Amino acid sequence: MFENQFIKRNLHYYCIDSPRNRSLFWLRNFFAPIKEDKTLILLYHRVVDDNFQGGLERLFITKNNFEKQLDFLQENYPIISLEEYNHLKNNKKQVIITFDDGYRDLYTYALPALQQRNIPATVFITTSIIDNMGDYFWWDILELLIFNNERKEVMLEELGNYTLNSLEERRTVYDTVLKKYKKLESHEANKTIEKIFARYGKLKEEMKELYLNREDIHEMLKNKISFGSHTREHTILSGIDDEQAIAEIGGSKKELEKIVQKEVNLFSYPNGVRKDFLQRDVDIVKKSGYRYACSSLYGTNDSKTNPHILKRVQVSNHWSIDEFRSSVERAFLLS
Ligand SMILES: [Zn+2]
43 CA distance to ligand 1 centroid (A)? Predict the structure, then answer.
């Protein structure tokens, strides 16, 4: 009772519109830090069937988890497209959804979930995997071999031979093999993959539906999905020479423009942490005509953020919806 009266009295006091109160209000706002838009760009890779058994949980999210996250975001923040990203000073928090690499499950699972809620998103695609015409990501080759339940053993040439009797064992083998692969020189790594393809003749068939094709892309373009480049071959830019970097960054833009039939002005750096790209690459991105480029550096973005090194927060399938909520809130608070 007493508390209620106290609150009412205080409310009454602050509501009095006196010249003194108006100047107090002005002073308080003058000394408060200038607040402005903060944009949280979320980074996803794959959206998979709820029964999916795969390798790295930071690279996929189940459809069910994805839908719960979209519902939470939509209830709490405006969700805009990357093209709409700007630095208006109106103290808003907003969210952008992005996907790296260009897996086909984005068409199968992510698109319907986004469409249902009328949410825009951007897919950064590695152009050489479109239509499964050329390249395959090496981690997918190994993942498909190791997580296929029908295989009880696997022979991976220089990477070793392993038994695969349980999901636990498959996960351990996958971790071991990834570490071994990363230590190989690039010519050894290519040779190993060639030998694996020769041994497992049907593997390419198994990988047929793994990446987006042109029809998927055209269908997605009609439904608030935009496409940006993620280089030609997912090459780590810091490890290549100038000419190759120009081909990966500028060349992929032209290739993708032919497919989407319009200008491509969004880019994301493969892997995208500080060691993966140089200032030279940021300059090439700018010169090639990209308007925005996303890294994988952690944080939200405001007017001080370089538009060619936008920060993102990577979502993990490990997170419960409460952990997702606190990760989003923490990102807005800390960065
Ligand atoms: Zn990538």
Answer: 10
